[in-house]
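REVIEWER CHECKLIST
Item 1: Sequence provided? yes
Item 2: Single chain? yes
Item 3: Sequence as submitted:
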Amino acid sequence: MASPIVRLKPVRKANPLHFAAHVVLLGVGLILLYPLFFMILAGFFSKEEFSMTILPFIPIPNNPTLMNYKTLIFGSVDSSTSTYILNSLYRTLYNTFWALLTSFLAGYAFARLKFKGKDGLFLTLLATQMIPGTIALIPTYLQLARWPYANGNDIFTGGTGILNTWWVYLIGGPAINIMGMFLVKQSLEKVPIELDEAAKVDGAGTLRLIFQILLPLQLPILAFVAITTALGTWNDFATPFFYTSSDSLQTLPSAITRMSSAAIGPVGTPNYPMMITLGLGTTLPALLIFFFFQKYIVQGLASTGIKG
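Item 4: Structure as written out by the authors:
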């Protein structure tokens, strides 16, 4: 009777270079995580203790309080906090929806349709990506302030336009996501045109071809567009800060900046623990989204054939 075959697991030899690399990566990871760790601990300080304490490397309060976190989650102290969070959430969902829709439809148009000036228009849209966003702040402000027949405007002058209204978010937010459009176009160009012809032979109309056949093939790209758009909108500071002044229209990033001058305590210092806690509330959702959905970012870029 043949003896059973015993398979031995290969013994890994200790590699000093691998050990050193892990030590370096661990050290870098701890350095990068330290600000997040500091923010979590600082949230347990009261405003008075924080202002009178020389903070050590690891700040530990003598009289910890949950008031800052209750304000962040429930708005128990500052009712405006829940408004800031909801405004950020509404803007993020709204802009993400329109980014997905416009990216896919524009990418389909440039990849599949034939029309005069297509290449020139496509290059023009790509060229706009090279313009820094700060350059567009003043032109955008004037455009919103001179919106025809809005808030006292007589065609282009006389009032405040749609500044300090929800129209700043509803009109100024949706736009063609240029990077998403580019990625969808690149991906669709890899799909054989014969697929479209076969679908039409089987009786599929244009809408069915677009939304039932081509759209599912672009899900990795659209997941990438959704994640990056959501992160960018959630962390957007400039739009609410420059184009709105009402407290009811602020989002978390802009509200934190306004608190540095508005939240003055009895000793004449801002409420830094509250500001840090709100900053933590802004940071954590973005970190969680990136942590759980980073594979879709890689898949989205890989499916276009673009190599970094």
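Item 5: Key structural point noted by reviewer: Residues 25-302 form a domain with the MetI-like fold fold (CATH 1.10.3720.10).
Item 6: Recommendation: ____
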